[in-house]
Amino acid sequence: MALERLDKIIGGSGQFSRSQARALILAGEVTVDGVPACRPEQKVSRDAAIFVGGQPVDTALYVYYMMNKPAGYECNSQDGVYPAITGLLSPALRKRGLFSVGRLDADVTGLLILTDDGGFAHRITAPKAEVPKTYEIFADGPLTEADVKALAAGVTMRDGTVYKSACLTLDLSDPAHGFITVTEGKYHEVKNLVISRGRRVTTMRRVKIGSLSLDENLAPGQLRPLTAAERAACLG
Question: Residue 161, Cβ neighbours under 10 Å: how many?
Answer without folding.
Answer: 14
